[in-house]
Amino acid sequence: MPILLSRVCTVIVDCLYSTDVNEQERHQATPDPGPGYVRIGELTKRTGVSPELLRAWEQRYGLLQPTRTPGGFRLYSAGDEARVQRMQSLVSGGLAAAQAARLILSDGEPVPGTVSASATILDEEAANLTASLDRLDEQAANSALDRLFSAYTVETVLQDVVLPYLHRLGERWEAGEVSVAQEHFASNLLRGRLLGLAQGWGQGQGPGAILACLPGEHHELGLLVFGVALRRRGWRITYLGTDSPIGAVADTARSVLPAVVVLLSINPDNFLDHAREIKKLAKQVPVMIAGTGATAEVARQTQTRVLDQDPVSAAETIDRDHPARGEERRRP
Question: Which of 203, 277, 286, 331 could serve as a FRET partner for 319 with CA atoms 20 to 30 Å apart?
């Protein structure tokens, strides 16, 4: 199935989200959410906040507290909507997202005139990055990223600057506000920076993970973000990258004995075309599937698990849930 360029940056951001929230909610009949509850698409329409950012606020800060239907769809309340609106107001007023979330959840109020200097710097450098990439200025874009990485953690820069930027880039291309050249330039520059952060990520003594895109799949930026975030938590990364045959993934798994394999594709048919091989691989090692092609039905047919978080949050969850990590936390 051909992929429109307007989907590229959205796919980059969505790459580790389950389509239980994306494709299924768009294309399948779902139960009526009931009075006072809405699905994520409607919440996005009401607040103007993208699904990606809503999920990030939910996963990172617990800002949203959805219930679920028997079929697994998230349902959001009027309280969730009110918290999102207040979050928008506080962040636009200069508070960092983490500070704003803490205030909202504690029912506190910001002290007038105390705009976070850290939040201001983050916003300024994010704007500098956008402007530099728009004018195809490699030196200025790299300088903006250098300043961001020197002032903030890698995770903060990835989750609060890079991923939102890529989402906005996709929206702007779709609206005709940026060119193909600008999109390609930005994606390639950011890919280079991510690969720089990935230097030496196969070394160490932590649990191992193999990351690969399915045959024919070339959307890898989200997988790179995920790998960098997982490496930051002490994991060893074996990165096979784009267009990886399942047989090669299986051979690598037998060699490096990873704790998990993550396979990505934006097309569910691509998973299903390789279902037999993936099922065989899943008997050898735990396999997780990612991308807008990773549906619950695909997971059922391939005997895998769907990753339904943004890349940074997904890395945190996998690290937290790994048996060896749980044993470490239980030690006195």
Answer: 277
- pTM for this model (two decimals): 0.70
Angle at CA 320, nearest 5°, toward 87 and 266? 70
- Give, as one character, the DSSP assignment of residue 135: T
Tell me the CATH architecture of domain 208-330: 3-Layer(aba) Sandwich (3.40)
**Whether domain 117-197 has CATH 2.40.50.140:** no
Q: Is domain 31-105 classified as CATH 1.10.1660.10?
A: yes
Rounded to 5 degrees, φ, ψ at 284 are -95, -35
Residue 109 scores a pLDDT above 90 = no
> What are the backbone dihedrals phi and psi of residue 153, each rounded to the nearest 5 degrees, phi first?
-70, 160
d(CA 235, CA 69) in angstroms, rounded, equals 34
Residue 253 amino acid letter: A
Taking the C-alpha atoms of residue 86 and residue 100, their distance in angstroms, rounded to an integer, is 9
Cα radius of gyration (the chain): 20
The 10s digit of each residue's pLDDT in 120-134 is: 577 788 889 999 999
